[in-house]
Specification:
Distance between the termini: 37 Å
Helix content: under 10%
Order of helices and strands: EEEEEEEEEEE
Oligomer: single chain
Number of helices: 0
Strand content: over 45%
Shape: globular
Length: 114
Amino acid sequence: VQLQASGGGRVQAGGSLRLSCAASGRRFVFNVMAWYRQVPGQQRDLVALITSGGRTVYADSVKDRFTIAADNAKNTVSLQMNSLKPEDTAVYYCNVAGTGAAYWGQGTQVTVSS
């Protein structure tokens, strides 16, 4: 399974970006699709996840600003990021997990300037 993430970039504070991640390769049943982010020198943290049943979980720092969505038929997951803040600057990674396996995308840089 390969994950291709896109949509990162540079934006001013208060702006918006949309990240997308597409899974390809062998057929894989996902239970959870998620976005994580990592700042150099720090651990990779969960930003948001969505289960195959549609339940969502968000980090407190992004609630009411970010929205995760999944298209199970197309094996894609997106992250709409609004009202971006400089502290949202990080490399964002998509992750998909199923029974006994998990996969990571290559990461996409998001930079928010003040």
